[in-house]
Structure formats: structure tokens, C-alpha cells
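Catalogue entry: protein
Contents: sequence, C-alpha cells
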Amino acid sequence: YQRRVHGASYNHLGNNDGKNLSAPAQFRSKEISKSNVVDDMVAANKLLYGPGEHPDHVVVIKYLPFVADSKRAMDEYSSSIFMGGQNTLVIHNTCEDSLLAAPLIVDLVVITELMTRITYRREGSDAFQSFRSVLAILPYMLKAPA
């Protein structure tokens, strides 16, 4: 079997995201949301992780104006493998941050319009009703729904 034991994410951002995340309070919020992904992975894998077991995980985000709208991410993941061995995967990714977000915005608009067409009926009621607020659905398209 293979079990993740370590993860590190290093990000260089040059746009307003990077500038905003250089403030400690904003960075802490991002760090928590990224750490929640690891917590969810552990909670979903009771066979791999026993009570109190948790992979090491660190997130580093630095504002680097030169990279402009690019997002440069270096991610490193280590896993324990057969016979006590270790495997480390290192990924380098450079992409345009705004272009990554554009399809998400299109999806949000499409889902918002779709939610205006859907009606539902509660059990025991004869009347159909529409969603009072599509905002109840949209957070599921985002990283950390509230």
C-alpha cells in the first residue's frame, strides 16, 4: 500500500492574490482552507490513518510581483511504500491565475441560471417552489463552502 506522510506547497503569486496573501490574517485563512483538504483526506481513509495519525503538511505563499498574473506552484508529496520505503513526487506548475478562474466563473453563471429554472416539492405538499436563494447552492463550487 501507499500512504501519504508529508506534503509541502510553495506558491509564488504576483497579482493581487499574492499581495493580499502576504498579510498574515489573509494567509492564515488560506492556510486553514488548504489544511482542511488534508484533514478531509485523513478522515476519508480510516484504513490508512489511525486515530491521531496525520501527515505533515506546510503551505508557503510568497508575493513576487515579477510573476504578474502567473501562479507558480511547487508541490512535494512523500508517501510510505512497500517494505518501509519512501516515494516523493515533486510537481512544478506555472499557469495564468485569471485564466484558471475563468471557467469557474462561467460555471457559476450557468448554475445560477439553472437554479432559477428548478422547482421542488416537499413531501406532503402539493405546491412546487423555487429556490429562495441560489447562493445556497453556489458555495459547493468553491474551495471551502460555508
